[in-house]
Amino acid sequence: MHDMINCVHDKNEYEDLDLLKDQEDGTASAAMDRETSTVGAETTADHRIIFINRTQPAVHKFVNNRISTAKYSVLRFVPLFLFEQFRRWANIFFLLIALLQQIPDVSPTGRYTTLVPLIFILSVSAIKEIIEDIKRHRADDETNHRTIEVFREDMWIRVRWLNVIVGDIVKVQNNDFFPADLVLLSSSEPQGMSFIETANLDGETNLKVRRALQCTAKLTTTLELRHFSGTIECEPPNRHLYEFTGVLKETNKLAQPLGPDQILLRGAMLRNTSWVFGLVIYTGHETKLMKNSTNAPLKRSTVDKTTNIQILLLFGILLTMCILCSVCNEIWTNSHARTDWYIGLNDVFNQNFMYNLLTFVILFNNLIPISLQVTLEVVRFIQAIFINMDLEMYHEETNTPAMARTSNLNEELGQVKYIFSDKTGTLTRNIMEFKKCAVGNIIYNIDEDLALQHIREGHKNADMLKELLVLLSVCHTVIPELPKDGPVIYHAASPDERALVYGASRFGYEFKSRTPDYVEIDALGKLERYEILNVIEFTSTRKRMSVIVKDPNGNIRLFCKGADTVIYERLESSGAEIGDILLQQLELFATEGLRTLCCATVDLNESDYNHWKTIYHNACTSLDNREANIEQAADLIEKKLKLVGATAIEDKLQDGVPETIAALLKADINIWVLTGDKQETAINIGYSSRLIVQGMPLIILNDDSLDGTRESVLRNNEDLGVNLEKQNEIALIINGKTLKYALSCDLRSDFLKLCVSCKVVICCRVSPMQKAEVVEYVTNYTKTITLAIGDGANDVAMIQKAHVGVGISGQEGLQAACASDYSIAQFRYLLRLLLVHGAWNYLRMCKLILYSFYKNICLYVIELWFAIYSGWSGQILFERWSIGLYNVIFTALPPLAMGLFDKACSADLMLKFPKLYKPSQSGQLFNVRVFWVWVLNGMVHSAMLFWLSLFICEHEIIWMNGKEGGYLILGNFVYTYVVVTVCYKAGLVTNSWTWPTHCAIWGSILLWFIFVLIYSNFWPIIPVGSIMSGMYIMLFTSAVFWLGLLLVPTVTMTPDFVFKVIRGTVFKSLTDAMRESEIRKTDPGNVFGRESKGSLSETARLLKNVRSVFFRKSHTRVDLEVELSHGFAFSQEEGGTVSQADVIRAYDTNIPKPDGM
């Protein structure tokens, strides 16, 4: 019923959303974020009032600016830690046993044999958790202890971020992060404008323009700030990144409205702006960034959860054994009470059934190994150190090592099936670099002098080359800055435009200055001035930008750059041959993963221009359908264009990204890209990173309604037919608005079926909460292990939702790394983290857990077999301290050696052949069947060890003198053979024999013999172990003992050995074959045989042949497909209150900027 109500609510929400006016992508993404977040909303009555340049009244309780991403605090540690530990059934069980042992005359093994180890285990776990959380606190302190200039007591003082309070006026310098949420007061730029980078918040590569109110933009000096007073009234803290409502009430002045364009959010960075003054409105965990974060979750590995469930089942077996023994004890006692009166059965206090039951529960409690928990904690902690110390994952440039922030998920790294990756800063460096341009039939590389040579020599391409370079240096919104020393520095909201202008300067056409009316360029040493007449802005609908200029000769010209589809349809008919050649070059650029733009010009008649200018002005001032009118006016002038060339920009990837993605795909890991950036940019990166290959069919979902989304999803599912939910060579691309509808409860299942049917999924323009929702739904639907990786604050939610969260600890922002389970400096290190450390740790942890249960069952089930001969009395066969030290000393080292040093193949082999990841990914090494095979193996071994030992001692004559030694001699016989057998078993299942492995296995056997030798001499010097006095003499002088030492473990282990031989020869796995090849030093590639490289499956070939199916009924999608195949992508802010034209009209680079002092 609850789900039904939710579905109805969701449906109503989406139907309401359909009624909204169509918005641009950026606005739609904002709407997604707004609608996703309903938690924590406050009533409008709780408006926040902030006093300017005075102390805030005591009635206002504002939080401090300290942030924390750690799991624990001093007060919360004990309850949270105990909750985490006692989620494990094993710890609950041991606590119960420890309490039962305190009941007098119940425990056959003493009162503290369980309590002391339990306290020790919890202490070790607590120390490990504290050490790991201290690292998180240190990372938080690194952020909290950054410094910022604050205006207090009429002067600027530098304080730490954590000491910034609401109402402070702060001065933020260029390339610095904002310490809190601020209202922009003024800046070094004209009209109080500032450029901010929000990649850390929304993943967008382009800069955003924010502008101060006109009344505060003049506050550019300290003196003016001193006289600034009044209040700001605004909404209470909330998580809506793209919304803000407030009012500035200056003293004795009219109130002014404040909106999102005056807000500078924590997590964003100031760019291309010398400084800004901002008033702090939200601090710490009340900032919008932190409101979008969630508390650090308590994650547990799948192996841990499976073990927890099996412990419950094992406890059921234990209880069955205890009831059986108690019932048998009752039967035996009643049948022997009269006949065997000399035993004194009538005087036994424990004759009560429940007392007997508790006695056996305590006796058999070690079936569940208490040592397992401390062994796991120690091994995981050291495994984490191995990750931290791996030099192959150390980034020397930034001095950043890999860091395991939690060790509880080490084995989870070996089971990852889905990777959800951010784009900006994770796959890319957010650096655009001009690589080459095409003019005529020649491609000019940026690092060659061919272009300059052709211009100087008057080559046939010379005129078009000049036009192209002039266009690149004039048609843009870049702001130049000429420092006293050094070359010109270019500032731009669009990283693409900056790269184009830098590229033109490399070819000798340098952009020098900008004023509201003209720009100046240095064209091969000659200063040229171009008067800017009109700017027709770039939008995602127009996919082009044009400027109309008057050149130095007085001619009016139009320069246009944009996507090939929109440029080609506006070309003059005579340029068809050049256009065909250029298309081939565009496709070549696209195959290299480069971002392309086409450039064209046209000469305008002055009378035609003046007529058009009137039409354009009327369109810009129209009240109805302004955007459509502007587009129609632009079409009147942007026609009969002459194609001059095309440019290719590289959105620089992190080092090794294509190779890493290729290897991960070979390991059968699905990679999804979730980004807040534009669709074209995201798909372009998909091509350049080799996530999408040329020729791969694309399913593009860009629907604006719930019904449209449903129709698209169901149609594509129908097209896939029997291949639905089977992986196909298809890429699915969906934007944030459509994703909102696709994840509605009545469509979610069908959408997820479509997603898992595609090899690649790219979600564009998605909000942080949408990222988390995608991760959560895919995790729940596929029931597989998921990993999320990102570098920005907008990635924190998905990092925390995934089974494993990995943060990129780059140069900008550490919040993702702080919130992650593992942090690395580069995306390429993820390959080694998963394929090497993940696979190794999974193998090691599986063997450790299975072996720990096996060795305990081997010893402690023997007490059940002995109960048959002891009248089901609960009498123990072994000496008490020997029982207690079995897990602590004699069998503690082999599982440690397994957990730390065992490996199936070397690191180089694991990286070279990613398919070796498959066994760990599919969970072949640890599941319910494997677990109970090991349990059964332990029971069989315990029976063989007991009855073989009993057989050799059957006549009780084990010395030449004919004497016998009692039940304890039998117990020590059995104990010795158990220790030797379980050590043999450890050796049998070990793949990699290192010197610590040898020490652990043979050393454990030696330790038992040394213990017997020493412990047998304790009494009476030390009043402990009186029944063991002289035991070493009795054992070591018995030929039967030594013969049994040779035969009993060998006979017991023979079936296991035979099974391993048959499995390793007849049923050899790929891993076995590769390990064998590595040992023999033969070529491992031969194991794989002849693989078809780059071939498509039959399904993929069929889908490729019917590629048009996915684009039918939509002309715009066909255009989009063409653009993508030609590599078009361009980043530019859209829909801001400050238009691109206004930005460039506001600047006069010949006038010095205020210094803010």
Number of strands: 33
Largest sheet: 9 strands, mixed
Measured on Cα atoms, how large is the radius of gyration? Answer: 37 Å
Mean pLDDT: 83
Name the poorly predicted regions.
1-45, 1090-1118
Q: Provide the β-strand percentage band.
A: 15-25%
Strand order of the largest sheet: 14-33-32-31-15-27-30-29-28
**Straight-line distance between termini:** 64 Å
What helical percentage do the residues reach? 40-55%
Structural class: alpha+beta
Shape from CA axes? elongated
Q: Figure out the total of helices.
A: 42
Binding site for ATP: 422-424, 497, 538, 561, 595, 675-677, 765, 771, 794-795
Transmembrane segments: 309-333, 353-372, 853-872, 884-905, 926-947, 967-987, 999-1019, 1031-1053
Domain P-type ATPase N-terminal: 52-115
Keywords: ATP-binding, Cell membrane, Golgi apparatus, Magnesium, Membrane, Metal-binding, Nucleotide-binding, Phosphoprotein, Translocase, Transmembrane, Transmembrane helix
Describe the structure.
The active site is at 422 (4-aspartylphosphate intermediate). GO terms for molecular function: ATP binding; ATP hydrolysis activity; ATPase-coupled intramembrane lipid transporter activity; magnesium ion binding. Belongs to the cation transport ATPase (P-type) (TC 3.A.3) family. Type IV subfamily. The chain has 1157 residues and is of the alpha+beta class. Helix content is 46%, strand content 17%. It is built from 42 helices and 33 strands. The strands form 6 sheets. It has a 9-stranded mixed β-sheet, with helices on both faces. Strands 17-16-26-25-24-23-22-21-20 form a 9-stranded antiparallel β-sheet, with helices on both faces. Helix 13 (462-474) packs across helix 14, helix 21 packs across helix 23 (748-756) and helix 27 packs parallel to helix 33 (928-952). The longest helix has 35 residues, at 302-336. The chain starts with a helix and ends in an 11-residue tail after the last helix. Residues 1-45 and 1090-1118 have low confidence and may be disordered.
